[in-house]
Design goal:
Layout: H1 15-30, H2 33-53, H3 58-90, H4 93-98, H5 104-133, H6 142-163, H7 170-180, H8 182-187, H9 199-205, H10 209-222, H11 228-250
Amino acid sequence: MTTTTPYPAGSALTYSRTTATALRVLRQLRHDPRTIALMIVVPCLMLFLLRYVFDGSPRTFDSIGASLLGIFPLITMFLVTSIATLRERTSGTLERLLAMPLGKADLIAGYALAFGTLAIIQSALATGLGVWLLGLDVMGSPWLLLLVALLDALLGTALGLFVSAFAASEFQAVQFMPAVIFPQLLLCGLFTPRSAMHPVLEAVSDVLPMSYAVDAMNEVLRHTDVTATFVRDVLVVAGCALLVLALGAATLRRRTA
């Protein structure tokens, strides 16, 4: 009887295996133009549409547009990553990879690197479109907007990797969006200041990463210099992304003996 030896759980992260995993994922995505359009074109299109929805009120676009530069990448990367990773699980690809000399850290880092590369492109295009073409007026540096947008995209990637472990189909993966994304969207301060919410909801919003992403964007919108609040918000978003990536790695288990 043929047996398969699982990869040792304590194996260290290696550059070559991580990049090989990332290149494999990117090659697969290259043959899926609809997914690429969802990640790169749709956020820019939504930002463009929003600009002309508020054509008569440019200040409203400035206040909302900056926040959405952080929210759009998180949402799109969550959707794409959760569905793409679920395909890997259900098709047996993940099962075969875990039976090879490839550690969990290599695998999860490879996925994060691949989707992170696309997140850089997405965030750069959306930020450039908003600031230099649509006239988004911010007092701080546009590079700080790009930094927050990129961290939000990486957070969306991490959340997508994590929730894919609990879905049995692509439809179920999409169903996680109301549970994971919508509450954050409602409580992040986009629609009303968090301080004006019911105390219970304000307390809940204080532990949701999207709240800090929106706060960081607002800091760039209103201040010319890097503030202590901005640094805190960026560190919280980055820390949440790393934590969720670690939780995602914990869900990478072989399902057969």
